[in-house]
Amino acid sequence: MPTSQQPHVSFAEADSRAEHMRSYINNWVQDLIEATDEAKASDHFQSWLDVQSRFHRYSYRNSLLILRQRPDATRVAGYRTWQSEFDRQVRKGERAIWIWAPIIAKRCPECGNSASYHDRSDCGYDESPPDDWSQGLVGFRPVPVFDVSQTEGEPLPALETAAAGAVGGLVPALVAIAGDLDVTVELLSDAAWSHGQSKGVCRWPDDEEEPPRIEVNEGLPEADLAVTLVHEYAHALLHGEGDKARGKREVEAEAVAYVVGRYLGLDVGGSAFYLAAWSEEAAAQVEERLGRISTMAKTIIEAIDIDE
């Protein structure tokens, strides 16, 4: 099973780079599905979540590629970007980190391919010339980036975040984004709490026009309360009343809470991920779950707006 302890790869061979990048992602997912040692599977999964927490704007595919090539990376950019925007220079001899970048081009309204691929396909669309087509995503290509640790030059500007130090501002910030996420949130006192040992619950009203409702025990320690709010947000936005696969839902929600919690600087070291519920799923289903986790974590982080 590939982990951060294995020798790092470079995807250095240009002719086979794209194929090897795709192969690594496919093999990582397959290893996760087939893992028989639950503790190792959890560590395997958690290593990816750690990287995703540092690169929340990146797709799960790109964070997996960073994990495989440079798991200790903290901030990456292209060679020219480091020069022009940060006045830093990539040190001679540093090895690039390869990730996927979108290809935007004019594409056929029917088959969605660029003009060159459209001409080689079976698509018969000819109602408008390629020059009149709208631009859109037609694929991805490997591009090189470098971590800040591979550069030298001017210091990076300090990022001001609500997570730098006190936890106190996070709970109000998380409650404040409920409207933006179209979720209702209520913090209940210990005396009013009627859900036993649960820290939080999510309910879906019978009226589909009404938003999901989150209730959280406000008697929790603040860091725990913040992580629980994120966990319940993930349930509210990813799952529905009729979704009965509880084990699968819990892994997704806990993973979102872990990524966001790590990003916010909270102590989430006690998390463990029991992935047996995913073991019988097809690779495509697991990849969809990874995408849901990374997308939802990004949505919540950006809703909090702590790094603007």
What's the SSE blueprint?
Blueprint: H1 17-34, H2 38-54, H3 60-69, E1 76-77, H4 79-86, E2 88-90, E3 97-106, H5 115-120, E4 135-147, E5 151-153, H6 170-176, E6 184-188, E7 200-203, E8 213-217, H7 222-238, H8 246-263, H9 283-304
Parallel strand pairs: 6-8
Antiparallel strand pairs: 1-4, 2-5, 3-4, 7-8
Question: What does it look like?
Answer:
This protein is of the alpha+beta class. Among the domains are: 79-153, no CATH class; 170-304, no CATH class. It contains nine helices and eight strands. It has helices at 17-34, 38-54, 60-69, 79-86, 115-120, 170-176, 222-238, 246-263, 283-304, and strands spanning 76-77, 88-90, 97-106, 135-147, 151-153, 184-188, 200-203, 213-217. The strands form three sheets. It has a three-stranded antiparallel β-sheet. Strands 6-8-7 form a three-stranded mixed β-sheet, covered by helices on one side. It has a two-stranded antiparallel sheet with strand order 2-5. The longest helix has 22 residues, at 283-304. It is globular and about 65 Å long. 31% of the residues are buried. Residues 1-5 and 159-166 have low confidence and may be disordered.
As residue ranges, the low-confidence spans are: 1-5, 159-166
Shape: globular
Topology order in helix (H) and strand (E) letters: HHHEHEEHEEHEEEHHH
Mean pLDDT: 86
- The class by helix and strand makeup works out as alpha+beta
How much strand content do the residues show? 5-15%
Tell me the Rg in angstroms.
22 Å
Largest sheet: 3 strands, antiparallel
Q: Give the count of helical stretches.
A: 9
The portion of residues assigned to helices is: 25-40%
Q: Count the E strands.
A: 8
Strand sequence of the main sheet, in spatial order? 1-4-3
Query: Termini separation (Å)?
Result: 38 Å
